Amino acid sequence: MADITNIQESEYDAILRQAVAVIDRTRTMIATTICSAIGSAHWEIGKLLHDRKLESKHGSGVVNRLSYDLKHRYPQMGVSPRNLWDMKKFYERFCDSEPKLRQVVAVLPWGHTLTLMRKFGDDDKAILYYAQEIISKGWNRELLSSAITLKMHLKKNETLDNNFEQILPSTQAMFANEVFKSSYNLGFLGVKDTILETELETRLVEKVKHFLLELGKGFTYLGNQYVLEYNGKRSKVDMLFFHRGLHCLVAIDLKIGEFRPEYAGKMNYYLSLLDRLERREDENRSIGIILCAEKDRVEVELALEDMGKPIGVADYQLIVPQEELKKVVADEMEAFGKELPLRTETKKE
């Protein structure tokens, strides 16, 4: 075995981080398997109660006794009378649903399933959306409740408010609409409350790789507070990127509050400077994205109506998909072998 002194500290750190990533992925797989097994038990017990035609008025005595006997045999299992009735409701709610929906709710934690049943009743589309988000992002019930409050299932198909089609060539406009989103999930920043724009920018810069992943493939980060000097004056772009597919510079302006029409004029000015000072002859026109906490679509449309530069306005959601963050960090550690901060704090449900 090689002497530990023959291994560089950075090499050992890379080995350790990759090992941690493997273990975390395995634990996630185990947790999913356990949830699936528990979900199967809840389904079968619910079916049993349904088939026996037990109702709360006439079957309460049977269910109470069943709960007592099951608790005696399985003291660690949640088999209270209320839980048993919920299992029956669970079976009856999804027994006739599409296979895709049944499969996804089968692997959810029980508390998440109950929350979705109570919040959305017969709305299969909403339940499917949140169930898929829970699985992909590892939301606990608090994060699920936050997402429901924000009505994220109604926002997922919104297009970015922009003037791309009026300003850009049709092919580039179509591609730009595919690249940029109407809403960005900045949960990896660990922010829940309103913060100063400078702090938001600092956190974005610190985790710029995560932000690039949120934006999508093809982005190259050029810098923050990017200085543009012209006519004896200095202007600063909050964040500047280059997109390989669009073959253009992308300026991002961060705002902690709601969208204001004057933001569009400021971005229009930045884009003029970028096209004059930074854009190369073989590159397309620069695009600007105003990222704010809230936006009114009518107000955005009016503000962009006569703008001569391609500008989009998006809002951001401050939800914390912690398990997704862990996966992103693990993947980056494997890919780059560089030290990245990994949030270790977890919230108890």
Automatic annotation (TrEMBL):
Organism: Bacteroides difficilis
Superkingdom to which the source organism belongs: Bacteria
Every YhcG PDDEXK nuclease domain range: 178-326
PANTHER family in UniProt: BLR8175 PROTEIN (PTHR30547:SF0), UNCHARACTERIZED PROTEIN YHCG-RELATED (PTHR30547)
Entry-linked InterPro entries: PD-DEXK-like_domain, tRNA_endonuc-like_dom_sf, YhcG_C, YhcG_N
Residue ranges of the TM segments: none
YhcG N-terminal domain: residues covered: 21-153
Name of the protein this chain belongs to: DUF1016 family protein
